[in-house]
TrEMBL record:
The keyword RNA-binding does not apply. Signal peptide: none annotated. The keyword Cell inner membrane does not apply. Coiled coil: none annotated. This is Phage terminase small subunit. Keywords: Viral genome packaging, Viral release from host cell. PANTHER family: TERMINASE SMALL SUBUNIT, TERMINASE SMALL SUBUNIT-RELATED. It comes from the Bacteria. It comes from Leuconostoc citreum. It holds the Pfam family Terminase_2. One of its GO terms (biological process) is chromosome organization.
Length: 256
């Protein structure tokens, strides 16, 4: 490989023209000549140069490293990771400590209640959410969508009248010689391009027609109310997420 070809590779790796000149014991003017006559590489950006030299550590990797350096025992550290995986204190204790279920049923929740263990679990969960790009308000927005879902957003329905006819197609008359009329109802899904499907849990065609099952609206509203009561001031919730807890509480009082 010729010297100017090696120098081009150095340039790709983020070397400056002055650095290259010093490395190959030539003038900066010579390096500029190589660049204009032989190189096809564009100037490496500052970000690219930094990226070459800096290893990006994911939040969860950093959190796990901090867990390794914590004061927990090795078994407790393993319990933390296992609990984060399956969210079951009893089974996590069985998997880590190799004990029977009767023992783990008592000692698993007890270890889960340990303050230092809880702190590590919370820190790792926070790191995972950060890595996923999800925060509490992202989850709250989903709950708001579920809490405010209206079945009318997903189906069209109505009714119409039909004349009652016999087998020959003649209109039947009632006792006063008026045409007999009976009422029928109709229901159909709205076009999928016209709806937001997030609140829908299931959708199918049943034996009697379309069936739309939404996520539990009352449960979503209850979770929202609990969160708002703990974390957000009275004047903030309407502006932040478009959900008025005072109105929701009033509605609950009326129905209870």
């Amino acid at each position: 490989m010729k010297k100017y070809e090696e120098a081009e590779q150095d340039y790709k790796d983020g070397f400056s023209l002055a650095d290259i000149a010093q490395k190959y014991d030539v003038s900066v003017g010579t390096v500029r000549s190589w660049k204009s006559r032989h190189w096809t590489t564009n100037v490496a950006t500052k970000t690219q140069r930094v990226a070459k030299n800096v290893a990006v550590t994911k939040p969860t990797e950093k959190a796990i490293d901090e867990l390794s350096d914590s004061e927990l025992t090795d078994k407790q550290k393993a319990f933390v990771l296992e609990y984060l995986r399956i969210s079951n204190a009893t089974q996590s204790y069985i998997n880590v400590y190799d004990v029977d279920r009767k023992t783990a049923f008592v000692t698993g929740p007890r270890l889960l209640g340990n303050v230092r263990v809880q702190n590590e679990i919370k820190r790792l969960r926070k790191a995972k959410l950060q890595e996923l790009g999800v925060d509490a308000f992202d989850l709250m927005e989903d709950m708001v969508i579920e809490a405010r879902a209206d079945i009318g957003d997903f189906i069209d329905f109505g009714k119409y009248d039909m004349l009652n006819v016999d087998f020959d197609g003649d209109v039947k008359l009632d006792t006063e010689d008026n045409p007999e009329v009976f009422h029928k109802s109709w229901l159909q899904f709205k076009d999928k391009d016209k709806i937001d499907t997030k609140p829908i849990k299931a959708m199918r065609i049943g034996k009697d027609g379309p069936v739309v099952e939404l996520h539990d609206r009352n449960k979503a509203r209850q979770l929202l109310l609990e969160y708002l009561n703990k974390n957000i001031g009275d004047s903030d919730d309407v502006q932040i997420i478009g959900f008025d807890r005072r109105k929701a509480n009033a509605e609950r009082s009326e129905t209870s």
